[in-house]
Amino acid sequence: MEPTDVGAVQTVSLHGHKRAYVIAGSGPAVLLIHGIGSRHETWLPVMSELAKSYTVIAPDLLGHGHSAKPRADYSIGGYANGLRDLLTYLGIDRVSVVGHSLGGGIAMQFAYQFPQRTERVVLIGTGGLGPEVNPIIPLCTLPGAGLVLSVVAAAPIRRIGVPLLRTLQRTRLPMTADLAQLAVVYDDMGTVDARQAFSHVIRAIIDWRGQIVTMKDRAYLTEFIPTMVLWGQRDTVIPVAHAQVAREVLSSARVEVLPGAGHFPQAEVPAAVSEALLDFFATTEPARFNPEIWERALKRANSPFYDTLPDQDEMIV
Using 50, 70 and 90 to split pLDDT, how confident is the model at 2? Predict the structure, then answer.
């Protein structure tokens, strides 16, 4: 399938549900996965630069954007499966996976489920490194939250609320760094199916205490896949302190904090994100999956009596 210009939305029916995506460029493949309530447009500021050297695919996840919003499986594993199927449809076997927020958790799950298809992993303001999250988000999982969301997402209120959020960000007051991008998420809540999909997704990853899903129990596997973590210094959705957690649990990863950026650095400081991604891709060798060594790594990590874990270089064949 030939790539198209950035911004040209294409669709395909997979397992009976419409999946939307944009694809651009040529060369090694890069998969860009957006966060909860977002859509592929969040990646447009970096896609043109990446597409000069890479085939770049940015889908709308199921339940988001131009994709279908059915009553369906919105788990992290379900999303990883859907992305594998989209890549298979596009004739793409192996990718560098870049995930933002929820998309970071999906990127890690994709690498865990399909290491043979994963060349690199990049996590931007990712979920999965601790329970902490903006306290408003867990409120969306409480009983009655759907009714409240339907009221605040009514068209007359959104017509006031969306520009208000954008205006508040321009004040640069504390905790306003992400309001303009969150206004986009809020504006997408205007239909019943969008709100229901949002509720399904959020309840799969968050409860009243914060994030449920963690990548820390399998983080050791990133030793065998080149990994980079980017975080906005002013992130108001998932605390930048999780970048330090990434340094501790993803010991082989490259970790960078982006000054002045919030939770959506790909939209706020696209030049810095593009530069970091291109440098990371250029200075790392794509992983090559070896099932025997992967098996040994799993046994070594999960049994204190198992013999030596292979050196990292042994994973590249």
Answer: very low
